[in-house]
Write a structure and sequence with these properties.
227 residues, mainly beta, 8-stranded antiparallel sheet, 7-stranded antiparallel sheet, binds calcium ion, PTX_dom, acute phase, secreted, complement component C1q complex binding, Pentraxin family member
Length: 227
């Protein structure tokens, strides 16, 4: 027992070191507008995707078009893309095609989005702040390529590049996840509420990433207790 008590703080210390890429309650701040900065996300994806869900939370006062999540393959730069052409519209691309979701213009608050797609039906779900939008469909039977450049902050027009600075993101991004499945409604809501989530290809609590340019990791500012 004595030995165990002695070791616990040591183990906790090691866990602290290993958890360096845990971004829980942290955000990426994209400071410039327009910006050439971006963040590369790394994941080990071995097979093409027949289903996926991508979720993230953003905070910006941009009114110009901007990219939120850009997943390009060598064959298709808009393989998966979450794009906001204007404050009251989201575009969700799969394999170069897109569906549009009209949303209320934000109250200049954080917006949480999840978008999912399944090949078998082509059904695309879009959830904003824990609420599902009417489902749409695209790219039935398509498969999403596994060899991808996954970027936050810029919209790719070629594999890992081809940026338009006036489509860059400026503001704060957090809680970025990618799953190789569709999420159940319960898990969609759990993502919005920052509750426990299933294992993912990209996990905010264990993110492999590389910052390119003017992006800073900071604690998230909490507006009020309990939010
Ligand atoms: Ca593009």
């Amino acid at each position: 027992m004595g030995h165990l008590q002695l070791w616990l703080p040591v183990l906790a210390g090691l866990a602290g070191i290993l958890a360096q890429e845990d971004l829980y309650r942290k955000v990426f701040v994209f400071r410039k507008d327009p910006s050439d900065a971006y963040v590369v996300l790394r994941t080990r994806l071995e097979q093409p995707l027949h289903n996926f869900t991508v979720c993230l939370r953003s905070y910006t006062d941009l009114s110009r078009p901007h990219s939120l999540f850009s997943y390009a393959t060598k064959a298709q730069d808009n393989e998966i893309l979450l794009f906001k052409p204007k404050p009251e519209e989201y575009r969700f691309y799969v394999g170069g095609k897109f569906v549009t979701y009209r949303v209320p213009e934000g109250r200049r608050d954080w917006e949480h989005v999840c978008a999912s797609w399944e090949s078998a039906t082509g059904i695309a779900e879009f959830w904003l702040n824990g609420k599902p939008w009417p489902r749409k469909g695209l790219q039935r039977g398509y498969t999403v390529g596994a060899t991808a450049a996954i970027l936050l902050g810029q919209e790719q027009d070629s594999f890992g590049g081809g940026f338009d600075l006036y489509n860059s993101f400026s503001g704060e991004l957090t809680d970025v996840y990618l799953w190789d499945t569709g999420l159940s409604p319960d898990k969609m809501r759990a993502a919005f509420l920052s509750l426990r989530l299933p294992p993912a290809l990209l996990t905010w609590k264990s993110l492999s990433y590389e910052v390119k340019g003017d992006v800073v990791v900071k604690p998230r500012l909490r507006e009020a207790l309990g939010t």
